[in-house]
Amino acid sequence: MLVKHTTPKRDGYVDRSGLLELAVEVKHLSGTSTGLKIMDFSQIVIDTMPEFGGGDAGPCPVELMLAYLAGCMIETAIYIVKRIRLVNVSSEARVIMVKKVKPTH
């Protein structure tokens, strides 16, 4: 399934009417892999882990979700730091998800 971006021409993330819109195109590639296209950035390929029948062609959706959560934390921290005018501040985040799974053998 391919989701097309249908909004009018825009400058950056905010269109001419002042609305903020974020969109992504998603397309099944083959097997268990899916391609994500966000704006004009390179395609991101996601896939299922081999332990769950996937081809390991890219990060699994859960890993990508964890990366996005960590990215949001960093971006929010940077925004706050700029708003209160702190200088020489760095920010890092590490998000770990652990789930016990049954052995396959």
Which structural class do the helices and strands define? Answer: alpha+beta
How many helices? The count is 1
Strand tally: 5
**CA gyration radius, whole angstroms:** 18 Å
Number of domains: 2
Beta-strand percentage?
A: 15-25%
Give the CA-based shape: flat
The H/E string reads EEEEEH
Mean of residue pLDDT values:
81
* Helical amount: 10-25%
How far the N terminus sits from the C terminus, by CA atoms, comes to: 35 Å
User: Biggest sheet, strands in spatial order?
Assistant: 3-4-5
Main sheet summary: 3 strands, antiparallel
Detail the poorly predicted runs: 1-10
Tell me what you see in this structure.
There is one protein chain. With 105 residues, the chain is of the alpha+beta class. The protein folds into 2 domains: 59 residues, no CATH class; 45 residues, no CATH class. Helix content is 22%, strand content 17%. The protein has 1 helix and 5 strands, in the order E-E-E-E-E-H. It has a 3-stranded antiparallel sheet with strand order 3-4-5, with no helix packed on it. It has a two-stranded antiparallel ribbon with strand order 1-2. A hairpin with a 2-residue loop joins strand 3 and strand 4. The longest helix has 23 residues. The chain is flat and about 55 Å long. The chain starts with 9 loop residues before the first strand and ends in a 22-residue tail after the last helix. The N terminus is likely disordered.
